[in-house]
């Protein structure tokens, strides 16, 4: 079978030629007007980015290289074990636009396992982190430290030609994706170790006979086949959500200054760590657990509704609900909910997830302020993780981040392939708005 690099090398020249034609034909096409409100309003609705690997439809949800999630999941190759797709297959798809064969995905799996090493001093740095340092901060810290071995940064400094940049970028992206399970598992083991127990130290390493996700599960200390499958699904579906979300956009803008993939991805993780973005998966499970503590196991929908209303009245958001672009239930929520209904139908927290779905959209829709009252990706994921014994909520966003590497590094690599320039939109001051539009 082809290696991913061989296939990319074949695809890149053709795609670049397509893009030249697209730009010649449509380069002057108008993508819409920008109002002052849009500039104050988080740039909502402004189309200002090219992101080759995925596209978000407000009604239908994410399409990954034109494939919707429900259509794609059954088609992605399965590995030697388990019944859920290997995230490696998703990576291949995002980078090439092609669903890989099983052999191609397994080849990529083996390649990632080979690349899965971390410099010992970075392991030491992680071992020295206080257990109380948030796992996302530790992740960002370690990824920044891995920049020490960036092949792109070295090649750039040595003055390699511009049209070869992507080759070095590709190497860094694959190396980084390969290192992430090891880094993230070390963080998990350190933050969950018993009081007074020593940090992981030496001895945590990738098993070349396992897939990327299987390795991650095993290094974290999880052994069950069902956990492995749940993690494969989680890592596959959280990978990408077009280019404008905070994490992808951050990766894109940082990389546009030709910062290497390590620096770009560490910045991306800092954005994902915000509670309105990826941290919402942590917030969401905490919310459900607290609600259960207060309402017990047999709460009625009326009690859930009263609880939700009180939270909103206190000025807090309901985590796991709402979206800046989506206007319907997130298909990533649906897919996790269906998985949970099949594998953990009696979990009391799942019952509450279902009750929230019956109550929250109606409550949020009242008054018309919230533009999307429906659940997003984070509304169900914590219940799955918790069910299989991964109960440390402050670790949940790390799992999101490991998955997100597949998408943001693919999108960013394609930006480098296309030679997109440094990103630099124009900003205004409020005085300038008045000068432009106000009375003389
Ligand atoms: N609960 C309560 N209020 C909400 C919610 C919610 N879930 N969602 C939106 N609103 C409020 C929002 O705070 C804003 O209020 P105000 O004008 O007083 O500032 C108003 O509704 C309008 O917001 P929208 O235009 O609907 O949403 P926006 O595009 O600004 O923000 C989110 C999108 C996702 C940040 C927002 O819906 C939210 O805060 N949701 C809860 C947090 C969450 O689940 N985030 C995860 C998103 C997915 N991910 O993983 O990244
Ligand atoms: C994501 O997966 O990045 C979130 O749904 C947030 C977004 O798309 O803005």
From TrEMBL:
InterPro entries: Citrate_synth-like_lrg_a-sub, Citrate_synth-like_sm_a-sub, Citrate_synthase, Citrate_synthase_AS, Citrate_synthase_sf
Gene3D superfamilies xref list: Citrate Synthase, domain 1, Cytochrome P450-Terp, domain 2
Keyword Transferase in record: yes
GO molecular function list: acyltransferase activity, acyl groups converted into alkyl on transfer
One Pfam family matching this protein: Citrate_synt
Keyword field: Transferase
Gene Ontology biological-process annotations: carbohydrate metabolic process; tricarboxylic acid cycle
Any one annotated GO CC term: mitochondrial matrix
NCBIfam families, sorted: PRK09569.1
UniProt record similarity statement: Belongs to the citrate synthase family.
The protein's name in its UniProt record: Citrate synthase
Organism: Gonapodya prolifera (strain JEL478)
Lineage: Eukaryota, Fungi, Fungi incertae sedis, Chytridiomycota, Chytridiomycota incertae sedis
């Amino acid at each position: 079978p082809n290696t991913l690099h061989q296939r990319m090398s074949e695809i890149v020249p053709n795609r670049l030629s397509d893009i030249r034609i697209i730009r010649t034909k449509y380069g002057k096409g108008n993508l819409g007007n920008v109002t002052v409100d849009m500039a104050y309003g988080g740039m909502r609705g402004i189309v200002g980015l090219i992101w080759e690997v995925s596209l978000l439809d407000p009604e239908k949800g994410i399409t990954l290289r034109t494939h919707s999630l429900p259509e794609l999941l059954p088609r992605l190759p399965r590995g030697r074990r388990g019944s859920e797709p290997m995230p490696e297959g998703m990576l291949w798809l995002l980078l090439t636009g092609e669903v890989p064969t099983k052999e191609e995905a397994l080849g990529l799996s083996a390649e990632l396992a080979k690349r899965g090493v971390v410099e010992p001093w970075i392991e030491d740095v992680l071992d020295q982190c206080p257990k109380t340092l948030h796992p996302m901060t530790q992740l960002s810290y370690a990824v920044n430290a891995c920049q020490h071995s960036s092949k792109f940064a070295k090649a750039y400094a040595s003055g390699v030609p511009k049209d070869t940049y992507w080759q070095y970028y590709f190497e860094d992206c694959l190396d980084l994706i390969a290192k992430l399970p090891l880094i993230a598992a070390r963080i998990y083991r350190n933050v969950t170790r018993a009081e007074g127990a020593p940090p992981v130290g030496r001895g945590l390493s990738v098993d070349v006979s396992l897939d990327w996700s299987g390795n991650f599960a095993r290094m974290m200390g999880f052994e069950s086949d069902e956990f492995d499958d749940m993690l494969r699904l989680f890592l596959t579906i959280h990978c990408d959500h077009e280019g404008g979300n905070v994490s992808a956009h951050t990766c894109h803008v940082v990389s546009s200054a030709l910062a290497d993939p390590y620096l770009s991805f560490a910045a991306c993780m800092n954005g994902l760590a915000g509670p309105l973005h990826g941290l919402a998966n942590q917030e969401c499970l905490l919310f459900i657990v607290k609600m259960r503590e207060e309402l017990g196991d047999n709460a009625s929908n009326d009690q859930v509704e009263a609880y939700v209303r009180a939270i909103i009245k206190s000025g807090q958001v309901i985590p796991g609900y709402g979206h800046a672009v989506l206007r319907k239930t997130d298909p990533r929520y649906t897919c996790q909910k269906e998985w949970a209904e099949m594998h953990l139908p009696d979990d009391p927290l799942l019952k509450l997830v279902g009750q929230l779905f019956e109550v929250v959209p109606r409550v949020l829709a009242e008054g018309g302020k919230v533009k999307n009252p429906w659940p997003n990706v984070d509304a169900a994921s914590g219940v799955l993780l918790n069910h299989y014994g991964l109960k440390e909520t402050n670790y949940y966003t790390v799992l999101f981040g490991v998955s997100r590497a597949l998408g943001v590094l693919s999108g960013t690599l394609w930006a480098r392939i296309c030679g997109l320039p440094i990103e630099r939109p124009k900003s205004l001051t409020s005085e300038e708005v008045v000068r432009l539009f106000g009375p003389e």
